Amino acid sequence: MKILTVIGARPQFVKASVVSRAILELTQDQPGQVTETILHTGQHFDSNMSQLFFDQLGIPTPKINLNIHSSSHGQMTGQMLIEIEKHLLQEKPDWVLVYGDTNSTLAGALAAAKLHIPIAHVEAGLRSFNKSMPEEINRVMTDHVASSLLCPTEAAMKNLEREALSNKSLLVGDVMYDAFLYAKKKSEQHSSVEIEGLDAGFILATLHRAENTDSLERLKDILMGLNQINLKKRVLLPLHPRTKKQISHFGLEDLLKDILVSPPLGYIEMVQLLSLCECVITDSGGLQKEAYFAKKPCLTVRDETEWIETVDAGWNHLVSASSHQIISQYDALDTPNEWKPLYGHGDAGATIVRHLLDGQK
């Protein structure tokens, strides 16, 4: 069986590493039973945003790198679609494997669908129900052209049932929980990440969503909120290249002077920081969930979330992009007494590979 995996954004590297390891582990007695070719679109091109993740997580080196980045959604997706199609015709895979909800996801799925190649969508069925988010468009369209929808949660399965897609849906658990457990184990074997001026009990913050960074008002308000919280508890902000660019564009550099800012960090370093922090403030789809894995309360600076289970469980709280709201929600934040394994038991990768193998019989 030949799999072509399409990835391009930082979270996808983490997710893909889980399935790549599962392929090696499940086929070690039958070398060559499954071959995986990784196509990297180049959507995240910064060294710390890309190569570091491949190195840390043991992801096989991508055979193909399209180097497509830094353009509009339409231009980027269109260029990816053209180039991915060329490589699909050359590689002739049995499955195209796509992850999540990025432009790379949609381009890979559309290219494969046009060529009638089966598509497996990992992290299928997520919905924010906000069509103004590019990610929502990407995930909905990918689900509707994919052949196999591999869902992380019961809520995702129910979303697909409402869209009459139950016949190709499967609950596999969340590959991100597999990745978190792997990275946690590896982090215990490495020296702890050291950032000057940082003591345990800090607040880990990230910020990169277009709806927050492309608006001067929203970006300024969020940074002002982080500054006020920083007066009470140290805030660490690993700064996404896109956010850094927008802060400079809007002339908001002064709002970073007191916050502890670092370059983007590797996944293992982020897992280490999660174990040391008091709580998380983010607009990331991945980090709000990883905060749950690490049993840390989280403020998610968005109007909605795909990971509604974390909100229902009391660990995650949605907050508007208002400095006042961010500060008041932080002041009211506490740690729930109960934690449940909402995302499986760390075997999603193996379940996915077995499913793909069964699909070839």
Automatic annotation (TrEMBL):
Domain of life from the UniProt record: Bacteria
Domain UDP-N-acetylglucosamine 2-epimerase per the UniProt entry, residue ranges: 33-356
One Pfam family linked to the record: Epimerase_2
GO-annotated molecular function: isomerase activity
SUPFAM superfamilies listed in its UniProt record: UDP-Glycosyltransferase/glycogen phosphorylase
Keyword tags: Isomerase
Alphabetical list of InterPro entries matching this protein: UDP_GlcNAc_Epimerase_2_dom (IPR003331), WecB-like (IPR029767)
Signal peptide as annotated in the record: none
UniProt entry tagged with the keyword Nucleotide-binding: no
Family: Belongs to the UDP-N-acetylglucosamine 2-epimerase family.
Protein name, as recorded: UDP-N-acetyl glucosamine 2-epimerase
Protein source organism: Lacimicrobium alkaliphilum
Taxon lineage: Bacteria, Pseudomonadati, Pseudomonadota, Gammaproteobacteria, Alteromonadales
